[in-house]
Design brief:
The longest helix has about 55 residues, at about 310-365. This protein starts with a strand and ends in a 5-residue tail after the last helix. It is elongated. The strands form two sheets. It has a six-stranded parallel β-sheet with strand order 7-6-5-8-9-10, with helices on both faces. A four-stranded antiparallel β-sheet has the order 2-3-1-4. Helices cover about 60% and strands about 15% of the residues. By secondary structure, the chain is α/β, with parallel strands linked by helices.
Length: about 425
C-alpha cells in the first residue's frame, strides 16, 4: 500500500474557491466516509482548515485513487473537473510523507510557523480513528507528523517567524514614508497574517486602520478587536487614495492590486508617498507598481531574503532541517520494514528445511544419541544462519536506496517463497 494526498490550499486556489470548499464537522465526516468508500482506498482521513482541504489515503492503486478522490473535491466545490484540476495538487508515497511533515511543522501555512495547524492535524487523526477509517499506515504517519510538529516548536522559535516578517515589512515602510504612528493604514485580507499586521500597526500607533476583505465576517471580527474599520473589497481604491501604508496578505491566487488600478490612485494622491507591503504568497500586488511615482513596494521575497540571516530566518531553516532529517529517517525505517516480511518468511523457510532434514536423519539413524543429535542440529542451524545472514542484511541496506527495484520481491523470487507466507507475516489476527 502507498499513501496518497489529494488537496487544495491557499497556495493553489483563490479564496473564493476555498470558501466553497469550507466544511463543518458533519461535512468533514461525510467527506472521510465517501473517500473510505473508494474502490482502491484502504485507510483515509481529512485535514480541513479555512485555507486547506486535503484527503490523505492509503491506497492500492495510484491512478484510480486520484480519480476517486479528485472527484469528491470537485463535487463539493461545485466545479467541473476541468475547472478544478488546475487548483488541485497530488503527493504520492514518499512525497506524501514529506508534505504532511511540512504541514504539521507549520512550513506550508500561510503564516509560517503558526501552531494552529498542529491541532488541526491532531483532529484529522482523531476523527479518522473515531470513524474507523484510519488504520496502521495512517496512524503511524500522523503520529510521527504530530511528533515532528511538537519538536519543531520545542527546539526552535519558529513561532516568531511570522511576526518578524510583519515587523520587518513595516520597518521598511517607515524608512520610505516616515514613522507609522499617526498615519492611515490599510490591511488587505482578514486571515492570520492580516491579524498580525493589524495588531502590529495598532501597536505602532497607526491613527486609522482599515481592514479590507472580500467578505465581511472575518474583517468585522478583526476590526472590532483592534478598533479598526471593516471595509468591503469593492471600496479598496477609495481607501488607497487616503492611505500612507498598505499591507496586503489575502492568500488569493491572483493579483489583488493591479498596476493600472494603483496608477489611478497615484494620480489622485497629489504626490503623497505610499508604502505597499506585500506579504502574500503568491503575491497580491503587481510587481510593476514599483515603477509608479511615490510608491515603495516591499515584497515578501526580499523580506524573506533579508530575514534569512536573522534569528527568525534561522529558526525557519532550523525547522526545515528537522523536517528533512525526520523525513529521511521515516522513509528509511519504512523501506526496511517493507522487506521484513520477506526476511521473516525466508528464515521460516530455512527453519522448516532444517527441521525436515533432522527428521529424515532421525529416521535413517534411529539409534543416534541425544548429545550427537543436538550437536548436529546446532551445526545445521548455524550453517543456515550464516548462509542467510549476508542476504538479509544486504536486502535491508538496499531497501534504503531509491530506485524501481524491489529487493524484497527479488529475494522472494530467488528463494521461491510462498506469497501467502510473506503476507501472513503482516496480516492481522482475526478476532
Amino acid at each position: 500500500m502507498s499513501v496518497l494526498v489529494v488537496g487544495i490550499s491557499h497556495k493553489s486556489a483563490p479564496v473564493a474557491l476555498l470558501e466553497r470548499l469550507a466544511l463543518d464537522g458533519d461535512g468533514v465526516h461525510k467527506l472521510i466516509t465517501d473517500a473510505a468508500a473508494g474502490e482502491h482506498v484502504t485507510e483515509t482521513t481529512v485535514i480541513a482548515t479555512c485555507n486547506r482541504l486535503e484527503i490523505y489515503a492509503d491506497v492500492d492503486r495510484f491512478h484510480g485513487s486520484i480519480e476517486e478522490l479528485s472527484r469528491l473535491l470537485c463535487e463539493r466545490a461545485g466545479e467541473s473537473t476541468e475547472g478544478m484540476l488546475p487548483h488541485l495538487y497530488v503527493h504520492y508515497d514518499d512525497g506524501a510523507v514529506s508534505h504532511l511533515f511540512h504541514v504539521a511543522a507549520g512550513l506550508d501555512s500561510m503564516v509560517v510557523g503558526e501552531g494552529q495547524i498542529l491541532g488541526q492535524t491532531r483532529e484529522a487523526l482523531r476523527t479518522g480513528q473515531e470513524l474507523g477509517t484510519v488504520g496502521p499506515a495512517l496512524n503511524v504517519l500522523f503520529q510521527q507528523a504530530l511528533r515532528i510538529g511538537k519538536r519543531s516548536h520545542a527546539e526552535t522559535d519558529i513561532d516568531h517567524a511570522a511576526p518578524s516578517l510583519v515587523t520587518a515589512g513595516l520597518e521598511r515602510a517607515a524608512a520610505a514614508i516616515g514613522p507609522v504612528s499617526g498615519r492611515k493604514a490599510v490591511v488587505v485580507g482578514a486571515g492570520a497574517m492580516a491579524s498580525l499586521a493589524t495588531s502590529t500597526l495598532a501597536g505602532l500607533g497607526a491613527a486609522d486602520i482599515a481592514v479590507v476583505n472580500r467578505t465581511s465576517g472575518n474583517a468585522d471580527r478583526l476590526a472590532t478587536e483592534y478598533d479598526a474599520r471593516a471595509v468591503r473589497l469593492s471600496a479598496l481604491t477609495d481607501e488607497l487614495v487616503g492611505a500612507d501604508v498598505v499591507v496586503s496578505c489575502t492568500g488569493a491566487a491572483g493579483v489583488v492590486i493591479a498596476r493600472e488600478d494603483l496608477a489611478e490612485v497615484v494620480e489622485r494622491r497629489a504626490g503623497r508617498p505610499l508604502a505597499v507591503v506585500d506579504l502574500a504568497l503568491p503575491h497580491d500586488v503587481d510587481p510593476a507598481v514599483a515603477e509608479l511615482p511615490g510608491v515603495s513596494l516591499i515584497g515578501l521575497a526580499r523580506l524573506a531574503e533579508e530575514l534569512r540571516d536573522t534569528d527568525a530566518g534561522r529558526e525557519v531553516d532550523g525547522v526545515r532541517s528537522i523536517v528533512a532529517q525526520e523525513v529521511a529517517a521515516f522513509l528509511s525505517a519504512r523501506r526496511q520494514a517493507s522487506v521484513t516480511p520477506t526476511v521473516v518468511a525466508l528464515r521460516s523457510m530455512a527453519t522448516e528445511v532444517v527441521d525436515a532434514e533432522i527428521a529424515r536423519l532421525d529416521l535413517r539413524l534411529p539409534d543416534l544419541d541425544e548429545a550427537t543429535r543436538a550437536e548436529l542440529l546446532h551445526a545445521v542451524r548455524r550453517v543456515a544462519d550464516k548462509l542467510l545472514h549476508q542476504p538479509t542484511v544486504r536486502v535491508k541496506e538496499l531497501a534504503n536506496e531509491t530506485g524501481a527495484v524491489s529487493y524484497g520481491a527479488a529475494l522472494a523470487e530467488l528463494f521461491a517463497l510462498d506469497p501467502d507466507a510473506v503476507d501472513a507475516v503482516t496480516r492481522p489476527e482475526l478476532p
